[in-house]
Each structure stands twice: as structure tokens, then as C-alpha cells.
Design brief:
alpha/beta; four-stranded parallel β-sheet; globular; signal; Lipase domain-containing protein; AB_hydrolase_fold; lipase activity
């Protein structure tokens, strides 16, 4: 399947907080995910389009993945919401740029638990580390992962992220691509969290990796590559 044209109408929604000291308060809460889910449903209903393309950047990746996958979100032990059935059969291309699908190393430090964005339910908690150290740039590296029970079980991290990545979770689109940079100043550590690139979405049909651009630049300075991927359904 190949489509060389773009749709006549592009809808967008900005969920990024530009104020740095407020960004630590953001997480995948029910209010935000339900609102964005309704937005996507409204676009589908208004346009009558059988398929849409979705581009997510940073937290927009993990929000979009849940919006597409549907299902429940547990905000805590007593509060939850249900987004409904999966919409993956309505998405042609999903382009995931610089998302923290396995969490952030920053959120492994004991001090990070005070930040909502690092909470264990709907945050970017990447699990508890047995070894934390700094690299030459001063960034925190999570190198050895505590497991649920000794060393025999898989690592435990954010419940929200584990649900997204679990075996059997639906592929988000007919064509799924992951994009990130090894020089990401937010994710750091060459994008690795406990030995795997956190920006790689399971079931991706391909990955595009930059080497010298920062976190925001992976969105702002890659328009031509984004255009190619969306219009051609393949990597440039």
C-alpha cells in the first residue's frame, strides 16, 4: 500500500508545556487522555475519513499510543477510567518521535518520586535501579534494573507504560515508525533506558535515528522526513 498524497486537512493539538518547571507535573492522567481520545474521535466523525495519520512527539507518543489502544487507565488504587475500544484499525501511519516508552532514567532516582511525571502508575517511572551513575555529560544513567522478584522476573516500571508495551497489545497503526536522536538532551544516554532505546515502539516497521540533534529538534527540524514517512509509508 502506498499513498503519495497528503490529506487536505490537518488537525493538531498541542499538549506540551513550554514552562520547564511545570513539565514535571504532567503525566498520563484520565482527564488528558480522555480529552485527546475525544478529539481523535471527533476528527474521525467530522471528516468521515476511513483512516487517519497520527504524529506524536515526546509525551505525545505515549499519550497517542493509549488513545489508539484504548482500554483502562489506573490513576491510582482507587481512580481509573476507560477509553473504550482500540482505534488502531482507523490509523494508517503512526509516527512516534522521541517518546519515553520505557520511561526515563531520571525517574529511577529515589528523589524523583516527588514529581507527578515520575509516578508509578501513570508517569515515566522506569523502575528501580540497583546502579545509578553519571556519564561524562553529567546525565543520570540507569544501568542495572531491579526486577520484581530477584533476577527471574521481567523488570517492573510504570503501570501505564507496561500496559502499552505488554505482549499482545495491538499495533497502533498499519504502518508504525519510531524516530529518535542519540543526542537527545532530555532523554539522554543515547536514548537507552536499562539497555534498550526508550523511544522504540514495539512492532515498529522501521526506525530512524539521528545523531546530532536535541529533543525538540527531532520535531521542529525534521519536517521533510516526517512528510516522507507519512506520504510514502516508509523511511527516507
Amino acid at each position: 500500500m502506498e499513498n503519495t498524497t497528503l490529506p487536505d486537512v490537518i488537525f493538531s493539538m498541542l499538549v506540551h508545556l513550554a514552562v520547564a518547571n511545570l513539565s514535571t507535573k504532567r503525566h498520563h492522567d484520565c482527564e488528558t487522555t480522555l480529552r485527546l481520545r475525544k478529539f481523535v474521535e471527533a476528527v474521525l466523525d467530522y471528516t468521515k475519513a476511513p483512516l487517519v495519520d497520527i504524529i506524536g512527539h515526546s509525551m505525545g507518543v505515549t499519550l497517542a499510543r493509549k488513545i489508539i489502544q484504548g482500554g483502562k487507565i489506573n490513576e491510582n488504587e482507587r481512580t481509573y477510567c476507560d477509553l473504550g475500544e482500540a482505534l488502531n484499525n482507523r490509523v494508517l501511519v503512526f509516527l512516534a518521535i522521541s517518546g519515553a516508552n520505557y520511561g526515563l532514567c531520571f525517574c529511577s532516582s529515589p528523589a524523583s518520586i516527588k514529581y507527578p511525571t515520575c509516578n508509578h502508575y501513570t508517569g515515566f517511572w522506569s523502575g528501580d535501579a540497583t546502579v545509578m551513575k553519571k556519564n561524562s555529560a553529567g546525565n543520570t544513567i540507569c544501568t542495572i534494573h531491579n526486577t520484581a522478584n530477584g533476577t527471574t522476573q521481567r523488570p517492573v516500571y510504570s503501570e501505564y507504560l507496561m500496559e502499552l508495551n505488554k505482549k499482545g497489545a495491538p499495533k497502533e497503526a498499519a504502518f508504525l515508525f519510531s524516530v529518535w536522536s542519540l543526542d537527545d538532551d532530555l532523554i539522554s544516554n543515547d536514548d537507552y533506558v536499562y539497555g534498550k532505546p526508550t523511544s522504540h515502539v514495539p512492532h515498529s516497521d522501521g526506525s530512524l535515528v539521528y545523531t546530532t540533534i536535541g529533543h525538540m529538534a527531532t520535531k521542529d527540524e525534521t519536517a521533510s522526513d516526517q512528510f516522507w514517512i507519512i506520504s510514502k509509508q516508509k523511511l527516507p
